[in-house]
Amino acid sequence: MLKNESLKVWASLFVCTLLLLWVAIYNGFPIVYSDTSTYLASGFEFETPADRPITYGLFIFISSLGGQTLWLTAFLQSLIITYVIYLVVKYFTNVKSPSTFTILFIFLLSFISSLPWISGMLLADIFTPTTILSLLLLIFVPKLTKAERIFLYFIFFLSNAMHMSHLLINAFLISTVLLTTYIRYFKSFLISVSKKQLYLLLFLTLSAIAIMSSAMSKSKHIFYMGRMVENGILKKYLDETCATKNYQLCAYKDSLPATADRFLWDFENSPVYKLGGWKTTKKEFNEIISATLTESKYLKLHVFGAIDNSIRQLSEFNLGEGNIAFGKGTVLEDRVGLFIPSDAVCYNESKQTNGELSLFNDFNPIQKAVVYSSLVLLLLIMIVGPMRKKLSPVLFLLIVFVLIGVLYNDVVCASLSTVANRFAVRVIWLLPFLVFLVTLNYWKVFSDKKKSTQHK
Q1: Quick one: pLDDT at residue 453?
Q2: What is the mean pLDDT of the segment spanning 257-271?
Q3: Residue 121: what are its φ and ψ, rounded to 5°?
Q4: Distinct helix (H) and strand (E) counts, the chain
Q5: The pTM is what?
Q6: Which is nearest to 346 in space by CA: 118, 23, 30?
């Protein structure tokens, strides 16, 4: 009986994984982004990039079996998020057939949300929701089996190390749970939460600094300076100090790019590259950043800028940003041919490579409507007493902390890097997923009540 149940679960996970790959299958190849090129180089050349950890690059190398095919990478990351979703359904709803509802939920999410776009994309973004959900499972579900717990610890640690933003998101999320254990209202909900485990998870989160330290050292000054450029802080600071400070950047204070992206990646016009690049500018940039963070009038500008960017980020989640055609002569096309030659034909014939992947234009209005209606419903459920009381305590906690995790994702990325649709796209599908879980919870409560009445 257990063997048959196990086969049913794995069969459902396989079906769900294929559902999540439908966008990639429609495209003819996993979706790519400009950063995909950097990840390929880091994974196959075993070098840490200047602006990100090597973890996802190594994941691509291992999951593609050393360069056999990138379809295996897309399949594995889709399978991982599918299994994590299955565990959420299993433990936060307590239905008898979680695999059946997992198929239903993933089927719906595949056609109304951003999930299949990020699960089938060769980018570390799929590991953002993976790390949030695996963390919350470890915190709020004490009855995980030994095998599930080992898997979740491994996936949490791996996902946490995939992107520098994950470290802060997870550290903030764990710290928030710790703080709420001291709040009277939440104490009854958090009885089963182990503080020792929270400290262990915090330790595992911060231990990723060892993996990321090289990339953080090489890039943090560049990304934060880009943020200062877009917020207008750098221009104001240079206008007020260049008369007394001999900064090389002063020569470009009246021709600074308008956006962080252009400051970071415009190799021909950005002052970063005119001054010698990331390494050469490090000392001067760090001095300017430090000066603005220790002087009150500039510190206020940093705070207001972070708030403004975070608010903007909350509404920026359109699909397709950066998923342009990387055809002949591009670095990405060259690296696919070099590292995964068996995928070269498939890559060159894909819709994206030929500029024919415009499907996201049809999906964006649908996704926006789903996200905003989901947010309204979730807020109503949280505010309206009778609706809130029908939720199981553990599901109530999941809703609260997933929403906090989505907020932290937007705040961290918008405050320290730039406002970009893809940062929100990677987690925004969690809102309709929560609505599905709530609907299932209400249905179960209604069914149980009906059965109880019939027995009487």
Answers
A1: 63
A2: 87
A3: -110, 140
A4: 25, 0
A5: 0.91
A6: 30
pLDDT-derived band at 38, boundaries 50, 70, 90: very high
pLDDT at residue 188 tops 70: no
Other CB atoms closer than 10 Å to residue 379's CB: what's the count? 11
What span, in angstroms and rounded, lies between the C-alpha atoms of 223 and 235?
16
* pLDDT of 199 above 60: yes
Task: Please state, in angstroms and rounded to a whole number, the distance separating the CA atoms of residues 131 and 151.
Answer: 12
Contacts of residue 120, defined as CB under 8 A and 6 or more positions apart, other chains included, come to 20, 21, 22, 23, 24, 25, 27, 30, 31, 74, 78
Residue 444: band (very low, low, confident or very high) from pLDDT cuts 50, 70, 90: confident
Q: Is 334 exposed, middle or buried (0-12, 13-18, 19+ CB in 10 A)?
A: middle
User: 31 pairs with which residues across the strands?
Assistant: 121
State yes or no: pLDDT of 455 exceeds 60.
no
Determine contact, residues 215/53, Cβ cutoff 8 Å.
yes
Cα dihedral angle (160, 166, 172, 173), rounded to 10 degrees? -60
First to last CA, the chain: 32
Residue 121, strand partner residues: 31
